[in-house]
């Protein structure tokens, strides 16, 4: 599926998201839409000892008017950076490649980005570098209605929808107790399979 795809901005998104990007020449990241709550735009799922666990970046939302994704600001009163770092350490500290990659992500967390869009993009670019994916990323210049463009995945990759993505299984830290849990955050794949991550997309 070479060519151009359209995706939402996403915080440490699932494996499916990067599988799509790996097959595209050009990726447009939506920034002109009205922000969608309870989506991958500000949340991800990790594999904890008790199964899937949500990590969510708190954001400020307008009380009356809808807010564009590009204008969404991160709420640092919630100490989310410490919570996310602690949760990732608890979940993946014993994974084979955690110590090789975690500091890169912790460094990005600690930069106190004002806008969620900037945090997501910096994390995504770091992940693409680790996965050795060379797709060209850029932001949308205006909003295209649903159904008006080809290869539009802005709203199909969602925690509210069952994913049809069939990825390869790999060894996860808590496999013996929980069994394989597919399509978690890409960090689950990276921390568990390291340099081989790209081969699982």
Would you mind describing this structure in some detail?
With 201 residues, the protein is α/β, with parallel strands linked by helices. It has one domain (4-195). It contains six helices and seven strands, in the order E-H-E-E-E-E-E-H-H-H-E-H-H. The chain has helices at 15-22, 80-92, 98-109, 116-131, 175-178, 186-193; strands at residues 4-8, 26-30, 43-48, 51-56, 59-60, 73-74, 136-139. It has a three-stranded parallel β-sheet with strand order 1-2-7, with helices on one face. Strand 3 (43-48) and strand 4 form a beta hairpin. Helix 3 (98-109) packs antiparallel against helix 4. The chain is globular and about 45 Å long. The two termini are 13 Å apart. The relative contact order is 0.25. The mean pLDDT is 94.
Set out the fold topology.
Blueprint: E1 4-8, H1 15-22, E2 26-30, E3 43-48, E4 51-56, E5 59-60, E6 73-74, H2 80-92, H3 98-109, H4 116-131, E7 136-139, H5 175-178, H6 186-193
Parallel strand pairs: 1-2, 2-7
Antiparallel strand pairs: 3-4, 5-6
Helix pairs in contact: 3-4
Please tag this protein with its features.
201 residues; alpha/beta; three-stranded parallel β-sheet; 6 helices; globular
* Helical residue percent band: 25-40%
**Would you identify the regions where 5 or more consecutive residues have pLDDT less than 50?**
none
Largest sheet: 3 strands, parallel
Spell the H/E element sequence. EHEEEEEHHHEHH
Shape: globular
Rg value: 16 Å
Question: DSSP strand (E) fraction?
Answer: 5-15%
Number of domains: 1
**Neighbour order of strands in the largest sheet:** 1-2-7
**Separation of termini?**
13 Å
């Amino acid at each position: 599926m070479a060519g151009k795809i359209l995706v939402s901005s996403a915080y440490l998104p699932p494996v499916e998201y990067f599988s799509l990007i790996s097959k595209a020449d050009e990726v447009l990241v939506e920034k002109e839409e009205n922000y969608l709550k309870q989506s991958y735009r500000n949340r991800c799922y990790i594999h904890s000892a008790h199964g899937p666990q949500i990590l969510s970046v708190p954001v400020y939302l307008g009380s009356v008017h809808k807010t564009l994704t590009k204008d969404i600001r991160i709420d640092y009163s919630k100490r989310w950076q410490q919570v996310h770092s602690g949760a990732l350490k608890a979940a993946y500290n014993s994974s084979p490649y955690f110590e090789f990659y975690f500091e890169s992500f912790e460094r990005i967390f600690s930069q106190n980005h004002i806008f969620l869009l900037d945090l997501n993009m910096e994390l995504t670019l770091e992940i693409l570098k680790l996965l050795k994916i060379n797709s060209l990323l850029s932001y949308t210049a205006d909003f295209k209605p649903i159904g008006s463009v080809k290869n539009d995945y802005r709203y199909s990759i969602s925690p509210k929808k069952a994913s049809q993505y069939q990825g390869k299984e790999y060894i996860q830290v808590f496999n013996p107790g929980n069994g394989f849990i597919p399509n978690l955050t890409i960090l689950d794949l990276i921390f568990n399979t390291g340099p081989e991550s790209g081969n699982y997309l």
